[in-house]
């Protein structure tokens, strides 16, 4: 039996809740401030921040950004004190 996901409008809510639309929303999620949008564009170009475009709008998924941040943290070598 196949599942019909097209008839259930609530089936896309988790994705919609996970999606950040625009550099301002991504900056607020990552840095806590919408004013850091230029940093998002810079990181997208230089640090391979996992973003994508829907038309001309920069978008990202919260879950993917959290995984990327965790990966960045694991790359840091612990200091020897």
What does this structure look like?
The chain has 81 residues and is an alpha+beta fold. The protein has one domain (18-74). The chain has helices at 13-18, 23-31, 37-46, 62-74; strands at residues 19-21, 52-54, 57-61. Strands 1-3-2 form a 3-stranded antiparallel β-sheet. 12% of the residues are buried.
For the secondary structure, the number of strands is 3
Class inferred from helices and paired strands: alpha+beta
The run of helices and strands is HEHHEEH
Which strand order do you get reading across the main beta sheet? Answer: 1-3-2
> Averaging pLDDT over every residue, what do you get?
84
How much of the sequence lies in strands comes to 5-15%
Q: Largest sheet at a glance?
A: 3 strands, antiparallel
- Our count of helices gives 4
Helix content: 40-55%
Low-confidence stretches: 1-11
Write the layout of secondary structure elements.
Elements: H1 13-18, E1 19-21, H2 23-31, H3 37-46, E2 52-54, E3 57-61, H4 62-74
Antiparallel strand pairs: 1-3, 2-3
Helix pairs in contact: 2-3
């Amino acid at each position: 039996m196949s599942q019909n996901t097209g008839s259930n409008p609530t089936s896309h809510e988790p994705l919609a809740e996970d999606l950040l639309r625009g550099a301002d929303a991504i900056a607020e999620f990552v840095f806590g401030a919408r004013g850091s949008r230029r940093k998002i564009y810079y990181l997208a170009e230089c640090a391979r921040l996992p973003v994508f475009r829907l038309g001309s709008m920069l978008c990202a998924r919260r879950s993917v950004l959290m995984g990327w941040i965790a990966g960045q943290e694991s790359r840091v070598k612990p200091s020897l004190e």
